[in-house]
Design goal:
Mean pLDDT: 93
Strand order of the largest sheet: 1-2-8-5-3
Distance between the termini: 51 Å
Subcellular location: Membrane
Protein name: Cytochrome P450
Family: Belongs to the cytochrome P450 family.
Strand content: 5-15%
InterPro entries: Cyt_P450, Cyt_P450_CS, Cyt_P450_E_grp-IV, Cyt_P450_sf
Main location: membrane
Number of strands: 12
Largest sheet: 5 strands, mixed
Length: 460
């Protein structure tokens, strides 16, 4: 797409055009080649994008030693050097312990969300502008930190500022070292922002991590319910050091905060764009579902409009417009005979699938209750159409064996933050203001400068 007819510098022409209009070319390619494949170029690589569902299923079913997810992940953010060369043994804790304990954590998460909002927004008696993305990022950082490391770090502004800066530092540092040979990267990484953020995190977390590693609990003694404790309980001997623990926790902070902040910013923006349509409906759903005046896990389980709102925000605010990316470690052949040579990069045009009119009526429009209507129409007790569920029509969190293991935690944090915010505040958009869509390659960038108006309702 965008290569033109001349063979000379074709991929460069395609890359420049894609850089200028990525969304346009993904939608155009999907529409034109919906039953097969199309190729796009970025400034770094070319991708074969798979459009048809059966072929996407083939891509997902391919063995990891043929089509590799980890190779893409490692290259995108140069993770071996920016995040540390470590095995993913902790992923079982994310999909297991963290997901299983969401209910136990909910009261504490709500308390930290309220604390962060008191700190960064307050209770304005008249409509007051806030920098939305900045506020959401700070609230998410505090909530995630409560679940990951508990008190006192989850309220330490220096610690929270460092993990927020770490997210940006990873991307910057990856681009700084990318042009150099791998043999130089262990030395060059020490000159980058991510190295400084990592070392500062070790200083801030040293005593807390060491105390958890050394603490021995008696049989009936209550342990902290957070990710740091589960790491301390299960880490293999080679991982039981402050450096290794901090390295792993920072890796998980990156995964938890980036997508959550982007989608949640999009969700709150939609409330501000159409307050008459959404604010009272969401608020009136949440308030009666509270228990003893508090938002609980039961509130979240039964607030299907809130859940739908988060899922719709994810549909229209994918962090990457290309998903399910793989690298061919070996030659791969689709059932239709299409051969993918070794070294080829593949993916799926997520943004185009999410804009497919055959899947979503009026797909370009935000309909906060799109999925709650579907759940009401097809109520059968399944998780279909819930915010944390995935399928070939909804790829916000991926799909298949490499689906995001923390998606249920992420969606619960988003729902809790949104629930607390619509209960506590009225929203509206300043006059003549609209959020701006910006893109960098295949990535959609939130409008960091967007300000919305908030006013306290008096509810807590």
């Amino acid at each position: 797409m965008g290569y033109g007819h001349s063979p000379f510098f074709a991929s460069w022409r395609g890359a420049i055009k894609f850089m200028l209009r990525p969304r346009y070319y993904l939608l155009k390619g999907y529409k034109k080649y919906k039953s097969g494949y199309f190729k796009i170029a970025t400034l770094r690589e070319e991708y074969i994008l798979v459009s048809e569902k059966g072929k996407i299923s083939e891509l997902l079913a391919a063995p990891a030693d043929v089509l590799s997810f980890l190779d893409i992940s490692a290259d995108e953010i140069q993770s071996r050097w920016t995040l540390g060369d470590s095995s993913p043994w902790h992923l079982g804790l994310i999909s297991g312990k963290l997901t299983q304990n969401i209910g136990t954590m909910t009261p504490g998460l709500v308390k930290e969300i309220n604390f962060a909002l008191d700190r960064h927004v307050g209770s304005p008696s008249k409509f007051t502008p806030i920098a939305l993305h900045n506020v959401i990022q700070k609230v998410v950082a505090q909530a995630v930190s409560y679940a990951f490391v508990g008190h006192p770090l989850c309220r330490d502004e220096v610690y929270l500022g460092n993990i927020r800066a770490f997210t940006r530092a990873v991307r910057v540092s990856a681009e700084l070292i990318r042009p150099f040979p791998d043999s130089m990267k262990p030395y060059l990484i020490r000159l980058t922002p991510v190295w400084r953020r990592q070392k500062f995190a070790e200083e801030l977390m040293h005593s807390v991590v060491l105390a958890r590693l050394r603490k021995t609990y008696k049989a009936k003694e209550a342990k902290p319910v957070d990710l740091l404790q589960w790491l301390a309980d299960t880490a293999p001997s080679r991982e039981r050091s402050v450096t290794k623990f901090v390295e792993r926790l920072m890796r998980m902070n990156l995964a938890a905060m980036h997508t959550t902040t982007s989608i949640l910013t999009g969700a709150v923006t939609q409330v501000a764009l159409a307050p008459d349509l959404y604010t009272e409906t969401l608020r009136n759903e949440v308030l009666p579902l509270r228990e003893n005046g508090s938002i609980t896990q039961k509130t979240m389980l039964h607030a299907i409009k809130l859940d739908s709102f988060v899922r719709e925000a994810g549909r229209l605010n994918p962090v990457s417009m290309i998903g399910l990316m793989r690298v061919a470690r070996k030659e791969f052949c689709f059932r239709d005979g299409t051969i993918i040579p070794k070294g080829t990069r593949l993916g799926v045009p997520t943004v185009a699938i999410h804009q497919d009119v055959s899947l979503y009526p009026s797909p370009e429009a935000f309909d906060g209750f799109r999925f709650s209507k579907l759940r009401e129409e097809h109520h059968n007790g399944t998780m279909m159409h819930e915010a944390g569920s995935t399928d070939l029509d909804h790829l916000t969190f991926g799909h298949g064996k490499h689906v995001c293991p923390g998606r249920f935690f992420a969606t619960d944090v988003m729902k809790l933050v949104l629930a607390v915010m619509v209960v506590r505040y009225d929203f509206k958009m300043p006059a003549n203001t609209k959020p701006r869509k910006r893109y960098f390659g295949e990535h959609e960038i939130p409008d960091f400068s967007l300000r919305v108006l908030v006013k306290a309702t008096g509810n807590r």
